[in-house]
Amino acid sequence: QEIKQRIEKYNAKVTNCLLMKLNDDGTYTGFIKVHLKLCRPVTVPAGIRPQSIYDALKEVNLASMTDKRTSFYLPLDAIKQLHISSTTTVSEVIQGLLKKFMVVDNPQKFALFKEMRKDGQVLFQKLPLTEFPLYLRLLAGPDTDALSFVLKENETGEVEWDAFSIPELQNFLMILDKEEKEKIQQVQRKYEKFKQRLQQTL
């Protein structure tokens, strides 16, 4: 009864038709939006066509059709809308997002955070893998300023590296090497500009 009242209260505030629906067994379904804020590239199958409606309905796994892999950056702050159940866990949301983008990286590389805005500050809190995002959405209401979900890289210290394959670990090293070179170039450019200004002043 309490869940029913909360859902009715939630739906009364919804302005985009993305309502929650209570099922006969007491579970409920609804929508969440997840912002993708990934700083590092992801690994996807190379040369795979975009997923069609037929593939989605038949749950065709295009990623399994080739062993070739490539890396690319997902658009920063891309938003994906998911229709989930009250029994869907954070772990399942992460796996579902990776599947939608055909990302073949180990799900342990990623974490789902809840983002809250309070007194002009933006606060992030990492969600446990067993948490239920739709329940959090129900409690917070449909206002995304009160609560939104963000997919980010997992903290390095919490990643179980033994769970990754050799090619994945090699890919991480390549990414780190690229990032290191970019940082070095940034520092070099910064001091080169500073040097030029000093010479002009002299």
UniProtKB/TrEMBL annotation:
Record PROSITE patterns: RA, SARAH
Entry keyword Cytoplasm: yes
Keyword Phosphoprotein attached: yes
Subcellular location: Cytoplasm, Cytoskeleton
A GO term for molecular function: zinc ion binding
SARAH domain sequence ranges: 158-202
Name of the protein this chain belongs to: Ras association domain-containing protein 5
Biological classification of the source: Eukaryota, Metazoa, Chordata, Craniata, Vertebrata
